Amino acid sequence: MDTQESLVFTVTRRSPELITPAKPTPYEYKLLSDIDDQESLRFHVSVIQFYRKKHNFVNVLMMDPVKVIRDALSKTLVYYYPFAGRLREGAGRKLGVECTGEGVMFIEADADVTLEQFGGTFQPPFPCIDQLLFDVPGSSGVVDCPLLLIQVTRLKCGGFVCALRFNHTMSDTVGFVQFLNALGEIARGASAPSILPVWQRERLNARDPPRVTCTHHEYDDVVDMKGTIIPLHDMVCHSFFFSRTDIRALRRLVPPHLRTCSTFEVLTAFLWRSRTRCLQLYTDEEVRMLCIADARTIISPPLPVGYYGNAFVYRVALTTAGKLCQKPLGYALELVKKSKEDVTEEYMKSLADLMVLKGRPHFGVVGTYLVADVTRIGLGEIDFGWGKPIYGGPARGGMGVIPEVAGMASFFIPSRNREGEQGIVVPVCVPAFAMEKFATELNRMLRNNDPLVNDNTSLFIKSAM
């Protein structure tokens, strides 16, 4: 068993406290956009960062990461003061922030463990994550709760862990990284962030009158008629590392005209197909792949630098389990590649209109697999004065704390293996019965041994009823 998976340690926490802005901030009511407050964003996202001890501090007071980050947080909230408020829900389920200045939740902690004890790799699922990012009772709701929770845990070796949880309706990951960079700059001594925050949520509101002009399959109301919903009580989460050599091996399985596709598209197609095969779905069951696409520059004029709200849409690939499993990998890759064509400014406007007309729905969960690429957004670049983290990225394998979607999402996270080779680590959550099949499928395809050529595909899928 991996050292990290078997690691057990004790975390001692002080009582949670509310950190308020260091200076008076405006009391006002700020509406979220019609992209922000959709049902599928009404949850908290968790990220975690591991830092080594630093020896060359000029100021001895800078040696305590708890004090440094706590003080910087208070100053950063002067600029990002909506985070210190509370969400309220109005007519039509419309969300807005009451900028009350009540503050964000902060936890000081110590753990009897060293960075070395985590082993040679850092990747989710992390041991004792619920202790490194403690869910303060009553803090994880969407409305009337703190919008941000930070726990800083000192380690025995002098390093520390900074774990954070934020309300997704307030920011997407790109926007939250902007906030973290501001926090890091102020922690290192800056008097103000280099990029000032911009609200302007009205830029992504529905038109008047709203009109849905595009097809949004991601929000189809799909009913599971065959009883094939993933058993959430028996989920297993494991991370898989893909080296550059592995990606080249996958490219050899696709037609020549598709080998110029991005690494994200190739790996997404492979994971979608392999995961579907191991779940043993019925051949006629509809399956979807959702990929997150940043829309900041799609809008005309583009959203301003400093915008930290949600500004993305879901790219959608749609087919049946039978076609996806029985056809070569190139079929899945074509679908993933084509989904990029749908992401236009009109699509974004139509989506905001759909949210208003349809009651801000959740995307369809049945038969859906969601992939988010965080390899380039900068979670591993946040510097509070200790340099870059050993690991900076998602704290959990699935989407967050929502049970019905926890097992249907994966992140692409930049990482290095034990030999120091650069690559991408992907947490995958599937039922226990499917994990061994998934690992076997992965290993055979990386050896250029596509199971379609050598195995009976009936082992992976069910016939239509």
Automatic annotation (TrEMBL):
The keyword Transferase applies. InterPro entries: CAT-like_dom_sf (IPR023213), Plant_acyltransferase (IPR050898). Keywords: Transferase. The keyword Cytoplasm does not apply. Pfam families: Transferase. GO terms for molecular function: transferase activity. Belongs to the plant acyltransferase family. This is Benzyl alcohol O-benzoyltransferase-like. It comes from Heracleum sosnowskyi.
